[in-house]
């Protein structure tokens, strides 16, 4: 018997499979991962401290830069936190527009995330290109309404920055025609593909109790079989008026996470269809005309959370009565979902580790802040 | 753990759907890829299709940008009057999250009061986060988001944009965002007229419009001298309160511009602050004296008489003098006797210069009519 030694290797912070500047301190025994320590902090931009010297409104574009895949969802969480603190009413139409944008965001996030995951498995660009193509269409829509593709900065306290441009709805309806075809096609490409099954089935299992212990949220938690979605658990905005299902997995492996994400795209499309149907009857304009953007919330603290495509994004704000937050804390889903990485990877091969990381779907901008 | 749900249900994902024979999943996937390959020879111009190419060959072809697209902020000025819309109200500077806007508000060189215009306006493009707040907050619709996206450079310092680099005519903005401007237009133009009224001299004119500035100086010199001479406006002088754009005023301005063209020289420094409110006769008078002297010398080079006043005033006066002289000379003005009540000191010289300038303008106007 050959005497083997455990070896510690660093993967990252500059590594194509780490989805950003992220380091994994991996202890390997041959090909098998015996321990893994995620090391964050390479993309630290002092986000929370900067937020404390900015006024409340000035922080809005900074939230875009947290999870830069889902600027709209970040905007929503932050806008909700401030609205809750100040007590700003949001008109019905604005709520519909918000939900519309956030659900589009969910589709584009999952389209991209699955693409990157398949890329991590070694299928190079095929699925990524297909996913990015659909994402591109949604970004075009975002651009026409908010002015920017990624850093949308579209939400304001009491509504959204502007109403839909005239060509938005026809394009959105076209997109919805393409959407089921795209998701079906994606499923045909991925589901029960023998190679994909080999790489994902039984890999990176995160058991239910462990997922709960780690406070994991989002598709990762649902993949582990916990039907927890803030849109249902604590309905905000207008989600209590919309029909949609919550997909959950049964095993909690990478494959379940893929399936959950595919189904979530379908459900998001369902939500968007309902929004389109209900939008013409919605009361009010795109913004509450009485809402001041230059807010001075009363002394107190507030926590508001939304279900972003990655999980629970929460903003904890403390106000000292001035125009700037006294404390500004982000509960970022990517960060918390990343913490059980060590437990998820233990016992699997090095190649699996990359796939497991991909299946969590992180954005370092949000992890390090 | 499970949550109460009113609408919708929890669905457990089905891990194995059909019984596929070995390799069937792969073939299925290959078919998808194949379809895309086959479709890639067609173009996809519609959001409802998923096959086909919808990319463009970028440097040669460009996609049209949506009107709301925002990249970097620019400052607008009015095509017609040449006035900048910005009043230097600091709203954008205050809201800018990374604090990259730096404004210097214009001051009346004589009274020292704030004037609704900005003498300098700097935006550090390299640190701008393109959030669009400045454009959103500007009450005068002066700052707007540009659509130019090819800004990369190896020289970071060159991305600190000054007002002259930021200025764009309104016609440029209507070209990129007609609907957005249509919404803002009425309010913006109304406010602009209000600002123009409160702008003395050439403050607020876009520095690039040297022609307009020249014309404005001429016009001001003429109008101001008459006012300085005693307040009675000679019928021939383009002497209406300087900032109003009545039809007569426009005509006068045109005439003045023609005269300036004929004069053809005396390049004016863009930002020389000349004071011309009727209340401030002194500077105008001084200008008039110089103009008179210059006219007397008939064809002499720009007068270089030393002036003992505040530097700004002196410079301005000199400048006005040069221009008035040149205009008078070139247009071949003949002093016409006009009754202007005398005020002490150099009223006479002032009157003379004023008349000369006015006549020059008039003749130029007549000439252009004859043509
Ligand atoms: S776009 Fe935003 S960051 Fe840029 S100058 Fe305007 S307010 Fe400042
Ligand atoms: S650009 Fe607009 S907001 Fe900024 S100083 Fe000028 S007028 Fe005020």
From the structure above, extract its key features.
heterodimer; A: about 375 residues; alpha+beta; 3-stranded antiparallel beta sheet; about 50% helix; about 15% strand; globular; B: about 375 residues; mainly alpha; Alpha-Beta Plaits; 2 domains; 3-stranded mixed beta sheet; binds iron/sulfur cluster
Describe the structure.
The complex is a heterodimer of chains A (369) and B (371). Chain A contains 15 helices and nine strands. The model of chain A has no long low-confidence stretch (mean pLDDT 86). In chain A, 48% of the residues lie in helices and 14% in strands. In chain A, the strands form three sheets. A three-stranded antiparallel β-sheet of chain A has the order 1-2-3. In chain A, strands 7-8-9 form a three-stranded antiparallel β-sheet. Chain A has 369 residues and is α+β, with helices and mostly antiparallel strands. Chain B contains eleven helices and seven strands. Chain B has helices spanning 24-39, 91-95, 133-137, 163-166, 170-176, 178-197, 210-229, 247-263, 281-297, 311-331, 347-370, and strands at residues 10-12, 73-77, 101-107, 114-124, 143-145, 160-161, 167-169. In chain B, the strands form two sheets. In chain B, strands 5-2-7 form a three-stranded mixed β-sheet. Chain B is elongated. At the A-B interface, helix 2, helix 5, helix 6, helix 7 and strand 6 of A face strand 1 and helix 1 of B. Strand 6 of chain A pairs parallel with strand 1 (10-12) of chain B, so a sheet runs across the interface. One iron/sulfur cluster binds at residues 73, 95-98, 100-101, 123, 128-134 of chain B.
Topology, element by element:
The complex is a heterodimer of chains A (369) and B (371).
Chain A: E1 7-11, E2 23-29, E3 32-39, H1 47-53, H2 60-64, H3 71-86, H4 92-123, H5 126-146, E4 155-156, E5 159-160, H6 168-190, H7 194-200, H8 208-213, H9 219-223, H10 230-233, E6 246-248, H11 254-278, E7 300-308, E8 311-319, E9 325-331, H12 333-338, H13 341-345, H14 350-360, H15 364-368
Antiparallel strand pairs in A: 1-2, 2-3, 4-5, 7-8, 8-9
Helix pairs in contact in A: 3-4, 4-5, 4-11, 4-14, 5-6, 6-11
Chain B: E1 10-12, H1 24-39, E2 73-77, H2 91-95, E3 101-107, E4 114-124, H3 133-137, E5 143-145, E6 160-161, H4 163-166, E7 167-169, H5 170-176, H6 178-197, H7 210-229, H8 247-263, H9 281-297, H10 311-331, H11 347-370
Parallel strand pairs in B: 2-7
Antiparallel strand pairs in B: 2-5, 3-4, 4-6
Bound molecules: iron/sulfur cluster (SF4) (2 copies).
């Amino acid at each position: 018997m050959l005497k083997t030694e455990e070896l510690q290797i660093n993967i990252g912070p500059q590594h194509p499979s780490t989805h950003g500047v992220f380091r994994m301190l991996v202890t390997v025994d041959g090909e098998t991962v015996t321990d893994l320590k995620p090391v964050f902090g390479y993309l630290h931009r002092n986000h929370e401290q900067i937020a404390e010297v900015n006024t409340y409104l000035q922080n809005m574009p900074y939230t875009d830069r947290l999870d830069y895949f889902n600027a709209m969802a970040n905007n929503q969480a932050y806008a909700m936190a401030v609205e809750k603190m100040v007590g700003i009413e949001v008109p019905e139409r604005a709520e519909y527009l918000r939900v519309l944008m956030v659900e589009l965001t969910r589709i584009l996030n999952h389209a991209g995330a699955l693409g990157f995951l398949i890329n991590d498995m070694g299928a190079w660009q095929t699925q990524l290109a297909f996913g990015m193509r659909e994402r591109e269409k949604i970004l075009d829509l975002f651009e026409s309404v908010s002015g920017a593709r990624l850093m949308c900065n579209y939400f304001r306290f009491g509504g959204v920055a502007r109403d839909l441009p005239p060509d938005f709805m026809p394009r959105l309806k076209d997109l919805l025609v393409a959407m089921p075809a795209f998701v079906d096609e994606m499923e045909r490409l991925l589901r029960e593909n023998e190679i994909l099954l080999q790489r994902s089935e039984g890999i990176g299992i995160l058991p239910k109790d462990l997922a709960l212990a780690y406070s994991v949220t989002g598709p990762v938690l649902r993949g582990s079989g916990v039907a927890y979605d803030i849109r249902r658990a604590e309905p905000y905005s207008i989600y209590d008026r919309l029909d949609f299902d919550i997909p959950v997995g049964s095993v909690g492996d990478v494959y379940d996470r893929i399936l959950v994400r595919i189904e979530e795209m379908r459900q998001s499309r369902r939500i968007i269809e309902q929004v389109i149907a209900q939008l013409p009857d919605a009361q009010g304009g795109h913004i509450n005309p009485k809402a001041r953007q230059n807010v001075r919330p009363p002394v107190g603290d507030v926590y508001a959370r939304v279900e972003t495509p990655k999980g629970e994004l929460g903003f904890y704000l403390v106000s000292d009565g001035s125009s700037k937050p006294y404390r500004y804390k982000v509960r970022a889903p990517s960060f918390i979902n990343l913490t059980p990485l060590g437990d998820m990877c233990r016992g699997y091969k090095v190649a699996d580790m990359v796939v497991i990381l991909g299946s969590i779907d992180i954005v370092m901008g949000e992890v390090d802040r | 753990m499970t949550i109460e749900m009113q609408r919708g249900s929890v669905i457990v994902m089905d891990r194995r759907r059909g019984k596929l024979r070995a390799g069937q999943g792969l073939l299925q996937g290959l078919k998808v890829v194949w379809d895309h390959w086959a479709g890639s020879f067609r173009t996809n111009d519609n959001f409802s299709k998923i096959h086909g190419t919808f990319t463009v060959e970028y440097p040669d072809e460009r996609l049209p940008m949506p009107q709301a697209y925002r990249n970097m902020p620019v400052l607008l000025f009015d095509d017609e009057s040449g006035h900048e819309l910005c009043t230097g109200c600091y709203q954008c500077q205050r809201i800018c999250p990374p604090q990259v806007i730096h404004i210097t508000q214009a001051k009346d060189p004589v009274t020292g009061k704030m004037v609704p215009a900005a003498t300098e306006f700097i935006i550090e493009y390299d640190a701008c986060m393109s959030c669009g707040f400045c454009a959103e907050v500007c009450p005068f619709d002066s700052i707007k988001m540009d659509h130019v996206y090819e800004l990369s450079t190896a020289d970071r310092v060159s991305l600190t944009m000054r007002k002259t680099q930021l200025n764009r005519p309104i016609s440029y903005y209507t070209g990129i965002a007609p609907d957005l401007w249509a919404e803002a237009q009425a309010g913006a133009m109304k406010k602009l007229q209000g600002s123009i009224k409160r702008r003395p001299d050439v403050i607020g004119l876009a520095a690039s419009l040297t022609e307009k500035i020249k014309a404005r100086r001429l016009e001001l010199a003429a109008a101001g001298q008459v006012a300085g001479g005693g307040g009675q406006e000679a019928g021939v002088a383009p002497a209406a309160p300087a900032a109003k754009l009545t039809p007569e005023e426009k005509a006068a301005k045109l005439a003045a511009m023609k005269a300036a063209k004929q004069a053809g020289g005396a390049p004016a420094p863009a930002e020389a602050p000349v004071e011309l409110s009727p209340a401030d006769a002194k500077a105008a008078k001084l200008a008039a004296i110089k103009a008179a002297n210059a006219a007397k010398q008939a064809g002499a080079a720009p007068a270089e008489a030393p002036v003992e006043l505040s530097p700004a005033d002196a410079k301005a006066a000199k400048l006005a003098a040069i221009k008035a002289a040149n205009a008078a000379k070139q247009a071949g003005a003949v002093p016409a006797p006009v009754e202007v009540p005398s005020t002490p000191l150099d009223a006479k010289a002032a009157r003379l210069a004023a008349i000369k300038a006015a006549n020059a303008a008039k003749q130029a106007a007549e000439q252009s009519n004859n043509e």
